[in-house]
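Recap for those who missed Tuesday's class. We walked through two folding examples back to back. For each one, the amino acid string is listed first and its predicted structure tokens come directly after. Nothing is annotated here on purpose, so try labeling regions yourself before you check the end of the notes.
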Amino acid sequence: MTTPKVDLKNKWLAAVLAFLVPGLGHAYQRRRFKAVIYFSCVLGMFFTGMTLGEWKVVYWRWEPGGHRTFGYLAQVLVGLPALPARFQALRYTAPPLDGFGVERRLRLDTIKGSDVDSELDLPFTGRFRYRPDPDSFAPEAGGEFPNEPIINVTGRIRWQQEDGSFTGNFEGNGEDGKPIKLAIAGQPTVSPRVFAHGEITPSMLREEDTMPVRQFSNSLRYVHCDVEEGTRIGEIEGTVERSLVDWFQAPLEDKALEEIHGRLGRRYALAEVITWIAGLLNLLAIWDALEGPAYGYGDEEEMVEDDSVDR
């Protein structure tokens, strides 16, 4: 007794659905058991790899003569869960060369300019320090300008660009609870909005003779700018928030990859391989939704009647 063939309905639509969401094409064909199997196995493997790699293993970079994410060609077969990487690559903004000293090659993707945000209004956490006041220093006493103390501050920083100049302020409190209000003076330095695993290590405001521990973050952006309060000039350095939609599956820079590989080691490589396998497994699911099960119909040996048999 032969097994009845499955009604594949519109097989091309089923294949597209199977690509977008593993198992969805089979659910459309009412092949519910396979739908559950593919959905669980493919997405289970994919998100296991993402978790092992701290959600930084899926991204798209394609540089002539440089870094190319060939593995993404397998990851993208998972469908919708991996497609944001391609969109993020188009949104990706290169770091300013002067502020971050990043040597870059020209990308094939269309990259927006690396200018500072024309408008920003976000919570800020960091440090503040006045610059030495020349009027309070007596040259005849000799020595160097005394350093002002560094104050930890929290609050809100905002600015906007008008006619090429930046205006804005920082409002918050110092570590002693004293309110602080400072005006933005000059052009701020801020890490790109669309970025993954950017460095936020304090470099300007730190205690002398100390080497800061390098810090990286997805959800935070580095900010530094000059400020003024009346006649006094100072500077603030710290971080503002970066939303999930601005870092999820955004391209990783070489410096970020170096830090991740150094910290996670083989675990990161394993995470990449697991996501590749998930994509290749879904390729089989797409083919199954398109062509159906391999029943063997059409390749049976032709039955030839033997006339010599006595009927």
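Example two. Treat it independently of the first, because the proteins are unrelated.
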Amino acid sequence: MTSRLHKEEYSDKSGLASGGCEQERTLTTKEQTLLDALRELNMDPQTESGEDRGFFVRRLTKKTDEERKPRVSPFEYSMPRFSSYPETGTYHFPKLSAFSGEDNKGEATWDAFRYEIHALLTEGTFTEKQIMLRLRRSMKGTAGDILRRLGPGASLHEVLKKLESTYGNIESQESVMRKFYSCTQGAEEVTAYASRLEDLFARAIELKAIKRGNDEILKQVLFQGLKLDLKHIAQYKYDTIDDYDRFKIELRRLEKDLQMTDKKRTCNVRYKKRQISTTTTTKRRKRDVQTFQTTG
């Protein structure tokens, strides 16, 4: 140990002597603070030249190779480094709406729930195991019991097949097409009527009764089922607009204008009735006054 210190002292002094630049080196603020602290503790190193002071400070602040190693416990060194999810490679999982198959408030229908799962599979962002984990947490009630009976090793395909057989569409092509062509607006607004019609249209596509993208039939049935007053004023828009969505927007505008017209008409009728009532009351009062004056 003593020989090593002598070697370090000799190498440091030889470097100072040979370099020339090290002799002119001034102490840093931290080094000067350290020397001042030693003097206050009556541990003055008794160095006269700047070279000796620099050598002394470097000896105090110099660390060995053992001291430079991070001080961690043997347990931390031996901890295995692996991902908690080695098969998925990510800690993120998809979000799915709650589904129980019992028409509870705030829960998704089977069609909406199935669409969410199919969209996740199409995107390919998450693996089937990640989707299955979220599926187990989202399914409640009766649907959760179906999943439980399949067992923890059931695949996503098996789960979807079982749910489709339980909650899927069981109508025939003829039944869906009959409902589609006989759909009318009734007392609802255009938005609700179109949504109900589009739902039947989507069912017909699933049953391969109608080809996807055949919006001309959808536009035709939408127009035929409108209320008579709205249908009369929408005839020109139906003949000039080919796009279904644009036609639906125009129908909503026409419906809004028609509602405003009906409100004005109702207000005018009420105003006229009020005027007639006021006039009748005034005439009756005049007649009563004349009768009183005559008898008096």
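Answers for example two:
The mean pLDDT is 77.
The radius of gyration is 45 Å.
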